[in-house]
Amino acid sequence: MDRKKKNEIRVRFAPSPTGNLHIGGARTALFNYLYAKKNKGRFILRIEDTDRERSTKEYEDNIMRSLEWLEINSDEGPFRQSEREEIYKKHIERLLEEGKAYYCFCTREHLEKMRNKQREKKEPPRYEGKCFSLTQKEKERLLKEKKNFSIRLKIPENEILEFDDLVRGKVKFNTKDIGGDFVIARDDFSALYNFVCAVDDMDMEITHVIRGEDHISNTPKQILIQRALGFLSPRYAHIAMLLGSDKSKLSKRHGAASVTEYKEKGYLREALINFIALLGWRPPGEREIFSLTELIETFSLKDCQRSGAVFDLQKLDYLNGYYIRNMKREDLVNACIPYLVKAGLIEAKFEEDRYPPAYGGVVPQASYYVPGKKEKISFQKLGEIISLYQERMKVLSEVGEFTDYFFKENIDYQKELLFWKDAKEEDTRKALEKAASILSKVENWKREEIEEKMIKEASKDKDKGKLLWPVRVALSGKKASAGPFDIMEVLGPETTFKRLKSAKNALKRAENQ
Ligand code: GLU
What we know:
Largest sheet: 3 strands, parallel
Bound molecules: glutamic acid
CATH class of the largest domain: Alpha Beta
Oligomer: single chain
CATH topology of the largest domain: Rossmann fold
């Protein structure tokens, strides 16, 4: 751990590895990161793995990999609380020596009885401090008898604690609402959550604690712990809770997911970062599109809202679509390839005979094949196919559904789909034949010439759809697809004619049934 420089801002992201990195955690990480970078400070990563039963290495890995993917990189850490037990123990011993903490031998039954009594009297549950008044002798005897104990922090009975929250303004707590002297460690001296968190924030010289509002009830306890230890507390900023569209606490049913799930679905890191930043932070003005660098320049805690931040999946789709539209073709193709492979539309084979970069060419990472076909499909061709959908793609995982007809040998036609409005089979057959005849006159198989000739013919009727609809469906087999001229250019003349013919055959086949 580096020592703090004078006036340095130090923040931390302190996830518990009890689940994958979720959208809420990613937001806390991002806000801390932005605050650190904006203020030329340090961003520290701390793994809060005190809950030994629920913490796992896998979750920790997931958190680390997700942060890495988001490029929210830490300046220090990860520090693990499970590796710092000696430090906590020393602080607990010191508090015991100074009489600021004490052994409590109360049994579970006693505590239960006390709580029931309080409930009857309609009083809030609190520890009444019985063991604080044990004499030295009694304490020694009970320890010798190896009675179970916990360690409690002595807290003031009726004091107003106030802190200036950087998002919420002045926050006041009365110590009488804390529930009495609370437990800071178990009888093996293993410290509990609030204690380790308070110690670490001081030990790591954290200047600002930025975290979800759900932690606000922990803050007075942590301040009391720090006070007992003789530390100054950091500044706090509790950011608004995430809510679903129905204003209830955000959950899976609102479409909230882990960073990994978003990544797998084909959300881009730029879009996710941009989206997360807007969850609870209101940038000045109307602007919505921010790169990470722009976020660092613009972010400020004073623009964080107090009321809940509503999670809107449509907005994420909108932002993702925006970033997809702005991708370079090559990057988009590279990003889409894994989804095409997953959809079984292409296979990637890694080659040994790579061209060394010294020859100046691009080093091919892999060759792509359409399953069942011998010849390769070039990166260039994949680019032509994918870019037809660059404008309308919302998530990368859609690429398969959009483009499958480019990779299929045969289209399975739905006869009715070939019919334009109230056209009959005969009209449809004629349209397909007409198209084939027009297209046979195309000299240079490029979109421009195809379009010019087809439009000229289609315009002879005031409803161009009569010719163009069955053609487009013949090419794609789909109700919605890219435009017919683009498709034809990419498919090439051979496949185009073949599809016009198979569509015609499909009409015949259906007729005979
Ligand atoms: N470990 C806590 C959590 O994952 C965060 C505690 C904090 O930020 O103070 O919710």
